[in-house]
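WARN retry 2 of 3 for item q-0093 after timeout on previous attempt; input resubmitted unchanged.
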Amino acid sequence: MTARDFHDLLRQKTHVFVTTIMGDGSPHTTMTWVDTDGDHALINIPAATLKARNLSRDPRVSLAVADPRNPRHYFAARATVVATTDDHDMTHFDHLANKYLGTSFAALGGAVHERLVLTIRIDSLHEAS
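OK item q-0093 returned
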């Protein structure tokens, strides 16, 4: 398997576990939706979160994602957030909602919050099965 296989997995309805680093050095892990541009992992987060505060201080993250067809096959990545983009019009978040829920976020009646798209460069990738 290769980095291409990792990005192919991110295109599926998989969930990724994202770990950021707290101010005291301890880990903070959450699960979220994920996508890829073919080179980077892309996640979308509310701007007013602990994860966002952690990343403003330290852009290093780890990612873990399992193949839904075979959960014993997974990838773990050490990575760095290389860009943070405002998702003012919710375009990226709607794309993710359609991918995971089959409908737009607006169609669900969700409230609009300030959101950020994180572009994540994979620095090292480990695969296990």
